[in-house]
Amino acid sequence: MRRSYRPLSLPTAASALLATACAAHSPAPGAPEARAPACVVVPTGEPPEGAPRGRSASDADISVALSTPVDPAKAPSGTGASERLVYGQLYRTLVEIDCEGRARPGLAASWSHDRDGLRWRFTLRDDARFWDGTPVTAHAVARSWASGPSPSGSPVVGPGIASASVEGDRELTVLLTEPFPSVEAFARPALAVTGARTDGGWPLGTGPYRPLSDPSDDPRGLRLVATDGKAAMSFRTTPGGDARAALDAGVDALVSTDPAVIAYARALPGFAAVPLPWSRTYVVAALPGWSAGGDTSAAPPAEALDGLARGAVRAEARPAEPPFWWTTGGCGGAASSEAGAPGRIAAPSAAPARRATPPRFVYPLGDAVARGLAERLVALAGRGPATPAWLAAAVPGLRDASAAVVAAGMDPAGLALAVRRGDALAFVVPVPRAAGGACLSELLAADDEMAGAVLAPGPGLRITALVDVRPSLVIRRGVAAVTVGGDGTLSFYPGGSEP
Amino acid sequence: MTFRARVLVASVVVAVAPLAVLTLGIRREVEKRLTAQYRTRIDALTDVIREDVARRGEEIDARLEALASGVQDDARVRAAVLLGEERPEVLDWAGRAMPLAGLDYLMLLDSSGRILSSGHFRNEYDRRSTTVDSLLGGADGPVLVQARTAEGSFLALTRARAFEMGGRRFTLAGGVQVDGGFLDRLARGEQAGGLGVELLRPGDPTAAAPTRSAMRAELALPYVDDTAPTTTLDTARIVLTHSLSPLVALQRGMDVWFLAGIVVALLLAVLIARTVSTRVTRPLTELAAKTRRVDLDRLDVDFRSTRRDEIGSLARLMAAMVERLRASVAQLRQAERRATVGDMARQVNHDIRNGLLPIRNVIRHLAEVAREAPAELAPVFVERQGTLDGGITYLESLASTYARLSPRADRRPCDVNHVARALVRDMPVPDGASLRAELAEPLSRVAADPVVLRRIVENLVVNALESLDGAGSVVVSTVGGRTEQGSTITLVVTDTGRGMDAERVERIFEDFFSTKPDGTGLGLSIVRRLVADLGGRIDVDSAPGRGSRIRVELPALDPTGAEEGNA
Predict the structure, then answer these.
(1) Which residues of B touch A317 (CB under 8 A)?
(2) Which of A39, A374, B94, B110 could form a disulfide with A363 if both were Cys (CB 3.0 to 4.6 A apart)?
């Protein structure tokens, strides 16, 4: 169950103050912390002897396959894996959370906040630059946040920026809309610092790469070049296509959850398939109005979840492992996320007068894992008296279903409408699972187009975790080092550069 | 019922009855033949569909056999199935094999009916579908199965095949989707020709009983609903219907033409009846009217006819009868006149003799006295004078008595034009002759009895018409005038008849003088006396071959009603 954000009580505030007072000061400016070794998923190194090199134009030029096209208009907040992968190379936030949940300087060298986390102060790095070389000033940061919600259209949910005061060229004071003592709030891609849009449609970024062309113009796909000019990345889209064909065509890397692709990559000489952190937890969420009654403590038995992980999905999956931020508190209640807050999608709290017929398990269109889970739930629900008790507990509305339950895929707009109307039996959606901790997970979930819409209603929402899924990075050996951030973003370091 | 109504009814019956019989007969025959043709067609299609379904079942069975072999021959799948390892391999097998085998429904089940792999619904694995397994295995031929997918359900024509692998029994159930396209292929495009193919499952609204608009045939197929909690083998039906719309349209067209024919026949019948009845009824009616006019005083009705049919014959018979009657009446009148005149003459003779007898006796006595004793003649005359006076008085009273026999005239102001006009209007005119009036307006009136005045004009006109000998004209004219005695009214009757010579003109007003063989000779004499009674005068102007002109002059009344002059 999701916990709403609310101000801390006095004892809690006192302890939090003590804790935050100690944590209020970030690492000293100009001294970025070393990356944790666990976050280096592919270390730099020469390929094994005899292993074929990549077919890139140069050692510092790698090609990456994408499953969906990338839209510059949505930068810097991506809604899909492909966009997150690309935008992660182009834009940076003030703070970065590594895969172990530790905050690292991003564009900011240091930071502090007041007792309750309402007011934050940042000192920007001296070497923080936009692509065009202009320094990233406090003024630029304030101007970036003042342009409103992310151009992607997804609202900036959670603690919002009430105001940003420029104290100096590199000093910035930020007043939040509600107290939030966790710096993860500033690690969200939605708060990446951007400048004005360039001719190619990309907002001016601050990442280690910059785009060379519009994805729709270059037949080779999107090309990014490192700001120091020493490396380049090419992204090729194979929408709906078999990723194995992309490997056969010579790409150097791709990210996939398909076991067939991973198995094929492992069979190819020169390629490695590296499991990435568990980045998604698939849940079944019954909205308020459909979740009344039933035994809320009836969690799915382990063997049921194992069966789902091993049989229902074609991905590397495991039974969902706690803790889950919606049961443990996530960011600790320092910010409000109640229904009705700006950017939240309000959902009906009562059962709709007329329910959709037939009753549906709704899943995001195009998400094969969600579809498999939804179909498995449909199959289990169709067993009548033999329907598993945990499923009946997770979706109490099943007992009132007079017609056979079906699965239905919806695009984001349709899914949001279904949430608003409350006429779906339940939703099977992926919830971001950040390696950087529960708070970041909660923030990423709030920003996620699908998860944010489904999990918005707040009280009355019944969430049951099913499986965790993780992708694998398929990469040609020796072409680049790769690190993973706390939000699952991959960073590439081609040509022997150190991550 | 009138003659016309009888003719109309008979015409209608004669016109409509054969038409109705013909139309009904044709209609029935067409219906019988077309219905038989449709029945043959629908039965043939039923047989074809039955064979098609059986053949489809055999095809499915052959594919299942191949798939079963494939499972057994594929080491990886075989190991996965038997050893329970690599579960995704098993779970995905049916989904991969189904499209390759050209199937829409495929399940691999173990001996307990548990689904190991499902191609149409991948994630329904581990569900027990024992009913499907047992029913499919026991049924002959293909079975319709209501199958379940994640998005809904669909109907499939299925077969099942069991096979042994690793000492264990497995079942493959597979089939093809039954949708509109499947039914269309079964029907082989016959729908364009009015044939419809429909699949009815148990619980579907029962198709309507055969009506006049469609013919039906049914083909039963075993049916199982695998989506229901409990399933039993039931029966679905492929219902073939053949639209009878062409037949209905044909019959409707025939009905329209039949009604049109009826309407035309009725119109013709009415027309014929009207024409026939008119041609028969009218002449008879006219004949009856003429016959009605025949009277002893009116025998001038013309029954002449040029028709050659029975009516013409009847008319000519009537004319001959009237002619004989006319002759008989003339003879009778003449005889009556003679008898009347004879009786009158005898009576007058008798009365006069009776009156003259005493006078003769006295005169004889006086003559005798005068001869024998003339001196006593005077005293004898005086003595016998009373007898003479008595006799004379008797004769005078006798004359007065006979004068009273004639009707007393009712004299009042009369319009001569009115009398003449009415007479000209009512007087029957022989064929070839004409009668007209040329009357002066205004015209003063005369003091006369209207009956007398009419008698005068009528006698003059009748004589004029009788003088024409067939062709000719008679004109009745009036004119006002003035003499020394005062105003007069002159009535002139002019004819273009045979005319009279001078001798006849002199004698025409004499009693009993007639120029006609059957004439009484009293007409004009009576006219003369009547004119004299009115104070008028009459004269004649005639010449042989030039016709005659009779002129009657009467004194006219002044506007106050007094006579202005005396004739």
Answers:
(1) none
(2) A374
